[in-house]
From TrEMBL:
It comes from the Eukaryota. The keyword Ribonucleoprotein does not apply. This is peptidyl-tRNA hydrolase. The gene is LOC112281815. Its EC number is 3.1.1.29. NCBIfam families: pth (TIGR00447). It comes from Physcomitrium patens (Spreading-leaved earth moss). Keywords: Hydrolase, RNA-binding, tRNA-binding. GO terms for molecular function: peptidyl-tRNA hydrolase activity; tRNA binding.
């Protein structure tokens, strides 16, 4: 274990030495105290990004193991403001907070209408983002962030609430449509209609009776759900950690396999 941690630390130091890190005031209304450590590659100004140059297209593949110097943008979808805290629609924000706490990544910078944090998960540089555009306009923040830091959509992980999955079911997928989710619809629109970017679907279940789904997702989790949520969020953190350290293909084929819902397991026994 000690040797593995030493290797990860060495990889981080190597990446940071190859990129100068400079304090830059947060743009777009950010506090003067809020700064973001922007990597400034020693090469040409045109390569300003947190992405190190990849040696071949295959290294950019989301199905391959993460390579040093290929950062990910991890986006949790939600709505800003205290009245939305604890609602089903804001579970993306909650999982970003859980990841930030688990990986000791402070969220303290405002840029492109998002709250951002930058650090590492294992050897992989990551940028955590909570768009503050409101859900339906999430792409207006995520698109420019992805462009500014030159992170291709294949390494943008979107985390969002999903009505089609029962509560506490989690799924990491390499691509897909928006499924009626307006936040995901906005992301796809700002990626030029492309749907080939990873997503973590966080099941919130469907409302009972004839309740309007849009009203349901803006409600807070009920006491029973809230009691279970800490454990479910921890599973989400584990899934993201596996993705950052082992790659998308292994995560989809192994982590998803062991996260079957109670309903799925019952059906398999029938």
């Amino acid at each position: 274990m000690g040797t593995m941690m030493q290797q990860i630390q060495l990889q981080r130091q190597t990446w940071m030495r190859s990129h100068r890190w400079c304090n830059t005031p947060a743009p777009l209304g950010g506090s003067s105290l809020a700064v973001f450590l922007l990597p400034c590659p020693r090469s040409s100004p045109s390569s300003l990004s947190i992405r190190a140059c990849s040696s071949s297209p295959s290294n950019n593949s989301p199905s391959s193991s993460p390579a040093l110097g290929l950062p990910w943008l991890i986006v949790g979808l939600g709505n800003p403001g205290s009245k939305f805290v604890g609602t089903r629609h804001n579970i993306g924000f909650e999982l970003i907070d859980a990841i930030a706490e688990a990986e000791n990544i402070p969220l303290r910078t405002i840029q492109q209408r998002s709250l951002l944090g930058k650090g590492f998960i294992g050897p992989t540089p990551v940028l955590l983002a909570k768009p503050h555009t409101y859900m339906n306009l999430s792409g207006e923040s995520v698109g420019p962030i992805s462009t500014y830091y030159k992170i291709p959509r294949e390494r943008v992980l979107a985390i969002y609430d999903d009505l089609e999955l029962e509560f506490a079911m989690l799924r990491i997928l390499p691509r897909g449509g928006h499924g009626g989710h307006n936040g995901m619809r906005s992301l796809i629109e700002h990626f030029g209609g492309k749907q080939d970017f990873p997503r973590l679907r966080f099941g919130v279940g469907r409302p009972e009776c004839n309740m309007d789904p849009s009203a349901y997702v803006l409600q807070k989790f009920n006491p029973r759900e809230r009691k279970e949520l800490d454990e479910v969020l921890q599973r989400g953190v584990e899934g993201v950690r596996l993705l950052m350290t082992e790659g998308l293909q292994k995560t989809v084929t192994t982590w998803n396999l062991h996260r079957k819902s109670r309903l799925e397991m019952i059906k398999e026994l029938e």
